[in-house]
Here is the input.
Amino acid sequence: QVQLVESGGGLVQAGGSLNLSCAASGRTFSSYFTGWFRQAPGKEREFVSAISWNAGLTYAADSVKGRFTISRDNAKKTVYLQMNRLKPEDTAVYFCAADTRGVLNRFAPYSDVNRPGTYESWGQGTQVTVSS
Here is the structure.
């Protein structure tokens, strides 16, 4: 089992930046696709970005392309989400998730990568608030 802990959230003005971290426990973290999702009040959880186990593949929602960058350091068992040019509509709780069942691989369709149900292990989330 993998335990995930997010950090790095906070309050920032529009146009600012934050760098979220997702620290994992467990020996096989480097084997898993890992994703970031977010959930705003009253809305469904939505996909933000994902990265393959070796960082060879990255995915991003259209709403964050060109602004957010996902990366990982398997030696540190950490996945990062660098968020630039933040907008008020980015305000949400951000969750890290890992595909610990091994559903995803390089041939996986985007519809599987961006689906919350694909990911078995989840962190508790970190709040990101962007003021206008």
Observations:
- The chain has a mean pLDDT of 95.
